Amino acid sequence: MENFFTQPINIGNLKLKNRIFLAPLAGVSDIPFRRICQEFGAGLTYVEMLSANAVNYVNAKTLRMRARHPSEEILGVQVTGPTPQELARAVEKLDQENFDTIDINMGCPVKKVVKANCGSAITKDTEYMAEVVAAVRAVTSKPLSTKFRIGFDKINVEDSALCSVKNDVEMFTIHGRTAQQNYSNPVDFKKIGDGVSAGKQEKSDIVAVGNGDIFDWESAVQMQKQTGCDAIMISRGALGNPWIFREILEGKVLHPTCEEWLDVILRQLQYHEEHYGDNVPTTRMARKYFVWYAKGYPGCKPFRSKLQHVDSLKEARILFKEFAATLPKDLVRYQGLSFKEAQHIKHGYDPKYDMDRKLDRGVGTECME
What we know:
The chain has 369 residues and is α/β, with parallel strands linked by helices. The chain contains 16 helices and 10 strands. The protein folds into 2 domains: 4-254, TIM Barrel; 258-333, Non-ribosomal Peptide Synthetase Peptidyl Carrier Protein, Chain A (Orthogonal Bundle), CATH 1.10.1200. It has helices at residues 31-39, 52-56, 60-65, 84-95, 111-115, 126-137, 157-166, 189-202, 217-227, 243-250, 258-276, 280-293, 300-307, 313-325, 339-343, 351-358; strands at 9-11, 14-16, 20-22, 50-51, 76-80, 101-106, 144-151, 171-178, 207-211, 231-234.
């Protein structure tokens, strides 16, 4: 039986090799991380979420975030903004750059982003949402998509889907929680399915994507079967686990051996050094990746503690090699556990959750205020 996720799919005139996408994760989806996920089979990746204001006012950091590596065959860009006019201005600029598809972020729950009337705040009013999508659609002919949640503080997913489809997007992605819910609330497959159905009733060839709580092959299948989505988008499930793309494409549980695990970590470290250099600031940027990778083997907790204080990539390499040398090369990561179970080990630490919800960090917020 053919694996649903391995089938190619078109977003407008853009042909993708499969139906497994990497989300545009703020503070995470940089070139080194994207390259690793692409090598494991991600059919579509995006740069980190951009602020329309930062794009319009030529913010230096945002310019760097828009870089594309020569090895990246297909790359999308995601942007959010405080008004339809600001978003349209930014998309006009991005339309001229080296991106294959453009996405409007209407789902980011970070407080500073919402306060600036960006991200998930856009979906509070579906008439306003429609105005936003129409303004952006008018300035780009590239495949356009929206990403939103099942609601902000109340469920309005069907209206959000219809706003997107009626304003001529080629794809929409639904995250199965409201903006007010946190990760302790499971994704609502039924509500995602309601949004998928509403969009397809309006436009049968719309590409509907499901997002949220996809940690392995089993949860990917569950998302697709229970929602009827055409593709899936991986978010937290890829943090420290780029193997998830290969697992879903191969249709079986896949955890690396210690030797394979170390090889991928060292490769991402190499990509990081090639792109950023090896110094204290760029190493501190990489610490979150170190922590995500440093899970799934005996003795990880004190090892993670050491990694949170490294100040050079060289030092990180040494620590990873030393730790790997204490383990059998053929020891399988998370042996006996699914990745989802392993991610929820008691006292586990997720820097992405801290960045988004506890520390209230957004992308380009210096230009939003």
